[in-house]
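Quick start: what a row looks like.
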Amino acid sequence: MVDLAEIMTADVFTVAPERPVAEAAQAMVQGRFGSAVVMQGRMLVGIFTERDVLRAAASGTDLTQSPVSRWMTRDPETVERDVDARRAAEIMLGGGFRHLPVVEDNTVVGIVSLRDLLSTRVRRRPSS
């Protein structure tokens, strides 16, 4: 099986917890990111996803004022880069989320999505 180090995205999009939802969402759209890792300095404090943007928008809150920290998932599940793709998929499916930060020595070094895992699986499938 493939280790996450081989398929993760190393260039992780990050935001500060106090950043307004509207700004974070705009940057996510421009960069085509499905999630943002929320960092307080060098410490991972949360993850903010497309689903969180939708929840915030549906609330009627002023998204130019509402901080990411109000909507993010705090202390998200993480894995190390040597975890295999199958185990990462089990974690994501079991937890009901689609993005998983990859850490090494408590430092974020990447992120993997269910799409990444599926793409790897499809590429590796032998042709009929």
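That is the whole record. The longest helix spans residues 21-31. Helices lie at 4-7, 21-31, 50-58, 85-95, 114-124.
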